[in-house]
Design a protein that fits this description.
heterodimer, A: 296 residues, mainly alpha, ABC transporter involved in vitamin B12 uptake, BtuC, two-stranded antiparallel sheet, 73% helix, 4% strand, B: 391 residues, alpha/beta, Rossmann fold, 2 domains, 5-stranded parallel β-sheet, elongated
Chain lengths: 296, 391
């Protein structure tokens, strides 16, 4: 019993640290969906871009962890703004399916441009700080897991503050609620959308750098799976709802860890996507979804 | 016009092959009676060019040494190289050219299994021996449809699953391990083959497999599964995958406090592995390989010294096995006392206890050598020769 309980706790630790990364990516998905009803499939690749920016910052510029993560976030935010301006803005009034296909195109564009420039070979992320292992009885946790968790919590808190307490956040909420009405009230919609892309991309980039540090290895196609998983997380929590993305991410991470730990690791991805199907069948609005939604 | 000429040439080539197949290959006299031509069907350009270049370097060394005395009473060996461009289709063309234009008596190469299988149809049709240094796929020497051995196809390397057998014997007998876990790459036949043979032999020896888990290529998070493996309390983990995932597995295993020895196959052989896993985490890990330049046999020391002198670099596994191939071909010619290709094949099949730089070779009925493998240990991120294990 003790060993079972010990294992359960250990798997929860593993799951929460993985889930907090899904949550960071899912936040961007959900924000962008909330504001322009676009499922931005290129989001996973922004996360990859962030990881490479972090890699560049630490190896070529010799920055330490915190400057590197900020560098990656700023770089990815710019990339997000440019992508929105170039690829999505001209499609603003096009049918939903056209803009969705554009998103898939942007995703492939980012992946294969990166392959062209950095080669498909995986890169080894330099170990920026040593992984100290903490033993708590039978449980093991290392400093990297802690850093991931703490960084994720800080970033989510900051985001919640921006969305709920600042003027820009208020504008975002207004646009998400009713874009036309917001425009009538004198809100510059284009700027609000750009801000949303910048924020979402910056969070994904932070996730990318954290993953680079944690797993030590990055490659140009690394964004595919986490991108899809984060999408599942966003839908699970209720797409368009910020706390939903956080909760969805953590739940997904924990479910994956428990499935690998107690059933079989080969069922892990199947479980993640089964959740998507179940949610869509029984509660399409997601866990936190209500009929009247507060969206951003 | 050009097109029809090409078609005509193809027809003519086809007719040649047909003729050879039906056993009336016409005159096969070489222009110079003192020279025996051996084909080298190698990857000289393309994505795997390093394989072919290493192999050619090694064959040149062997022939140079043999030609100081000569074979069959003073005849010289001459290597005729045809480039496969690292493609199976080009390998077929190259084989065609070597056999019909250059009239070689035997062929060495290619290193890529797919290319050996494709060109194998031609040399077997024309009854000329081909020996591949590194074609590890079982189908290279055995026709998978009929289960029959291809009469004129040989290899100098062992087939992949054999590594599982070697590792099972090594950890049971030399490390004294009784409880093993197996963690395989579920997307790779290579890994599954190694794992199956490891399990079979480890259990046969008397050990028990306490956990069997799987991952998929490109996975990055292994902690959940490793936690599960840790709960099963194994003394050893067998991970027959490729270095990319293996590196992450070893790293994450050490992070969750799983400090048992771990081992795999030649998929671990990469300078990237210490970077990914971290040097300290890699301590107490091993893998099987076909060859190590640090092998302490006299023959190998001489080979490494010669190779280094000639090419200013350490020989890799492709060089070592091609070296053995060239020696085997020379021995088969000598044993057959003839340059008639069919007789050379027959002599090759009978070779027993041949000592090469990569170990002792005896061919079994599938033309696979029964030979020793080397175990390589990681010490602070450096591959060090640990021991040689006989089957």
């Amino acid at each position: 019993m003790d060993t079972f309980f010990g294992q359960l706790c250990q798997q929860l630790i593993n799951g929460i640290s993985l889930g907090s990364i899904y949550a960071l990516i899912a936040l961007g998905y959900t924000m962008i969906y909330g504001i322009i009803k676009l499922i931005n499939f290129a989001h996973g690749d922004i996360y990859m871009l962030g990881a490479y920016l972090g890699f560049f910052a630490t190896t070529a510029l010799g920055l330490s962890f915190f400057p590197a993560i900020i560098f990656a976030m700023v770089g990815a935010a710019l990339a997000g703004i440019i992508i929105e301006r170039v690829a999505y803005r001209p499609m603003r009034n096009a049918p939903r399916i056209a803009i969705l296909i554009t998103a898939i195109g942007v995703s492939f564009f980012l992946e294969y441009t990166m392959i062209l420039f950095v080669s498909p070979q995986p890169r080894t992320f330099p170990s920026i700080f040593a992984a100290t292992v903490y033993n708590m009885g039978p449980l093991v946790m290392n400093s990297q897991q802690l850093v991931i968790l703490i960084s994720a919590i800080i970033l989510m808190t900051v985001l919640t503050y921006i969305v709920n307490k600042t003027k820009a956040g208020k504008a975002m909420r207004a646009v998400s609620f009713d874009a036309d009405a917001a425009r009538l009230m004198g809100i510059d919609i284009d700027r609000v959308i750009s801000t949303t892309f910048a924020l979402g991309s910056a969070l994904a980039a932070a996730g990318g750098v954290l993953v680079g540090v944690y797993y030590n290895s990055i490659d140009p196609l690394m964004g595919m799976m986490p991108g899809l998983k984060a999408f599942v997380a966003a839908v699970l929590g209720g797409i368009g709802i910020i706390p939903g993305a956080m909760i969805g991410g953590i739940i997904l991470g924990v479910v994956e860890a428990l499935v690998s730990g107690f059933i079989s690791s080969t069922f892990r991805d199947a479980a993640a996507f089964a959740i998507l199907i179940l949610i869509l069948l029984y509660k399409p609005t997601g866990l936190l979804g209500k009929n009247v939604r507060e969206k951003v | 016009m050009k097109k029809s000429l090409k078609a005509l040439a193809l027809l003519a080539a086809g007719a040649c092959v047909m003729g050879a197949l039906s056993g009336c290959g016409g005159s096969k006299k070489s222009e110079n009676a003192d020279v025996i031509k051996v084909g080298g069907l190698l990857e000289m350009t393309g994505g795997s060019a390093s394989f072919g270049i290493s192999s050619k370097n090694a064959i040149d060394l062997v022939f140079k040494e043999i030609n100081t005395k000569g074979v069959l009473g003073g005849k010289k060996l001459e290597l005729v190289v045809a480039d496969t461009k690292s493609e199976a289709s080009e390998a077929t063309n190259g084989m065609q050219k070597l056999l019909s234009q250059d009239k070689v008596v035997a062929v060495i190469g290619p290193n890529q299994s797919s290319a050996v299988i494709a060109s194998g149809a031609i040399n077997n049709g024309m009854k000329v021996l081909d020996i591949t240094p590194m074609g590890t796929n079982p189908d290279v020497t055995v026709d998978p449809k009929t289960g029959k051995t291809r009469e004129h196809s040989f290899r100098a390397c062992f087939i992949d699953p054999f590594q599982g057998t070697v590792m099972a014997n090594y950890v049971y007998k030399d490390l004294g391990i009784r409880k093993a876990a197996i963690y395989i790459d579920n997307t790779s036949d290579y890994a599954k083959g190694l794992a199956a043979f490891f399990k079979e032999n480890f259990v046969k020896n008397g050990g028990s497999v306490v956990a069997e888990e799987a991952y998929l290529q490109k996975d990055t998070d292994f902690k959940s599964t490793l936690t599960k493996i840790k709960a099963a309390d194994p003394d050893f983990i067998y991970i027959p995958g490729y270095y990319q995932e293996v590196g992450l597995i070893v790293k994450q295993a050490r992070e969750i406090g799983l400090n048992v020895p771990m081992a795999g196959g030649d998929g671990w052989d990469s300078s990237k592995l210490p970077e990914i896993a971290g040097k300290a985490a890699l301590n107490n890990t091993f893998f099987t390989n076909l060859y190590s330049p640090d092998d302490t046999s006299e023959l190998n020391k001489k080979f490494v010294a010669e190779y280094q002198k000639a090419y200013n670099t350490k020989p890799d596994v492709f060089a070592a096995l091609a070296y053995d191939c060239a020696l085997l071909v020379a021995k088969a010619i000598e044993d057959a006392q003839s340059t008639e290709p069919a007789k050379i094949s027959a002599a090759m099949a009978k070779i027993k206890g041949f000592k090469g730089v990569s170990g002792e070779v005896t061919f079994n009925e599938q033309h696979n050598p029964i030979k020793s493998a080397v175990i390589i240990e990681h010490k602070d991120g450096v591959q060090t020769f640990k021991s040689k294990v006989n089957p």
